[in-house]
Every structure is written in structure tokens, then in C-alpha cells.
Design goal:
four-stranded mixed beta sheet; Conserved hypothetical protein from pyrococcus furiosus pfu- 392566-001, ParB domain; alpha+beta
Length: 122
């Protein structure tokens, strides 16, 4: 059951600065060339929606709490009705990599684990 009556608002597409952030992170996992290729594929991908709880389960990551300043900042955005950027995901070796948007995912999950999250996935 949702913990808040706040409506989670989303942008139609990820913000431009999300892609280089994703590539920077992915370069740690895949090297710069493959990361750049994944970044290009993410830019070209369509936005789809998946539930917050399913993204967490597929990623195997832990939920960050409100003590994390980035999660708290995104929770304040939700409370104020400020649109969040869709998250960027990469499938790989049996787990889902959150290339950009981990803090947004944690913030949304804390409001409603069943919330649909717009994302691009490759």
C-alpha cells in the first residue's frame, strides 16, 4: 500500500545529463568502448514502464533509505510534484544493472513499491 498520497510525476524522457552519467558508471563494469555503445543504445531505446519492486528484485541491490541525501532530495521532489527523470537500465548476466537512477528508484519505492517507473532498458 502506498505510504504517501503524493503523485509521482515523470518526465517523458531521461534528461540529457543522465546518459553520460550512465556511461561513466557502465565504463567501470564494461570498459569505455562497450559503455559508450550501451549509452548509444540507451538513447535510442523506447521508454517502457516496470514496477519499482520488480526492478529492485532484478537488480539484486539493497534499498537506500532516507538517510541518503540523494534519496531524500528525490523524495522532496516527489512531495513537491517535480517530475523525475526515467531511469536507465542494462540487462546483463542474470541481473539488471541500474546505469542511472538508483536514487530515484529508492525514493519512488519508499512511496509505493508497486509504482510504475518509466525506464529505458537495453
Amino acid at each position: 500500500m502506498p505510504k504517501s498520497v503524493a503523485k509521482i510525476v515523470w518526465l517523458d524522457a531521461p534528461e540529457d545529463h543522465n546518459y553520460p552519467a550512465a556511461v561513466d558508471y557502465l565504463s567501470l563494469l564494461h570498459g569505455p568502448d562497450h559503455a559508450a555503445e550501451l549509452g548509444a543504445r540507451l538513447r535510442a531505446a523506447e521508454v517502457v514502464v516496470h514496477k519499482a519492486k520488480d526492478i529492485f528484485r532484478a537488480s539484486g541491490l539493497s534499498l537506500l533509505g532516507v538517510s541518503n541525501s540523494h534519496v531524500a532530495k528525490d523524495q522532496r521532489k516527489i512531495d513537491k510534484g517535480i517530475a523525475l527523470s526515467p531511469i536507465l537500465l542494462v540487462r546483463g548476466d542474470g541481473r539488471l544493472v541500474i546505469a542511472d537512477g538508483y536514487h530515484r528508484l529508492c525514493a519512488v519505492y519508499s512511496f509505493d513499491e508497486d509504482a510504475g517507473i518509466p525506464c529505458k532498458i537495453v
